[in-house]
Automatic annotation (TrEMBL):
GO terms for molecular function: pyridoxal phosphate binding; transaminase activity. Homodimer. Pfam families: Aminotran_1_2. This is Aminotransferase class I/II-fold pyridoxal phosphate-dependent enzyme. It comes from Streptococcus pasteurianus.
């Protein structure tokens, strides 16, 4: 993400202990398809069976998953791209 040091709004404002669920898109900062929901195992397990949009969605392809993994690894390994974003 672009907020703070690139770890998102919750991290930027120090709200990790206040926020139970985080959602985001991978098509903006990461540049691939899909999105994510992050939370406790119990909450995510509940959403998997109760959230109607999830019930009718499709899993990411292995190629998309590999692209996401590489993009996140690259962003985590260096601040160069994040710094360049703010320079622009």
């Amino acid at each position: 993400g672009v907020m703070g040091k690139g770890a998102g709004t919750v991290k930027h404002f120090g709200l990790e202990k206040e926020v139970d669920l985080q959602m985001g898109t991978l098509s903006k900062a990461i540049g691939v398809v899909g999105g994510y929901v992050a939370g406790s195992k119990d909450l995510v397990d509940y959403l998997k069976v109760a959230a109607r949009p999830f019930l009718f969605s499709t899993a990411l392809t292995p190629a998309d998953t590999a692209a996401i993994t590489k993009a996140v690894e690259k962003l985590m390994a260096s601040t160069e791209l994040h710094d360049k974003l703010w320079e622009n």
